[in-house]
Design goal:
mainly alpha
């Protein structure tokens, strides 16, 4: 025998679970992005005091980290769009990726 929902507008348990998983996925991606941005800021500040080969190595690391951050932000935008969220201006504001650094 099947269970009748108390309201036609009340979500099923599986729908609630799916929404929770979507929110968790957004949070995890946002957390990764926050961490990458914090590391980028740290490396960027270190670059001000470095020169020569050590600076070149850190600039290369910075570029790789920045590319990772841009990818994570893109992943966040894709996840938001999959959830029906189309305005991403707040993503740009909440997760500002530092500018590229020249060698």
């Amino acid at each position: 025998m099947s269970t009748i929902r108390s309201s036609l507008f009340e979500p099923l348990a599986v729908e609630v679970h799916i929404r929770q998983e979507k929110a968790s996925s957004l949070r995890r991606t946002g957390d990764k992005l926050d961490k990458l941005i914090a590391e980028l800021v740290q490396v960027e500040s270190e670059l001000r005091t470095l020169s020569g080969p050590s600076r070149a190595a850190r600039v290369q690391l910075y570029g790789q980290m920045r590319a990772d951050a841009e990818y994570q932000r893109w992943c966040l935008v894709v996840q938001r769009e999959a959830m029906g969220l189309w305005n991403h201006a707040e993503v740009e504001l909440m997760y500002p990726i530092p500018p590229a650094v020249k060698p």
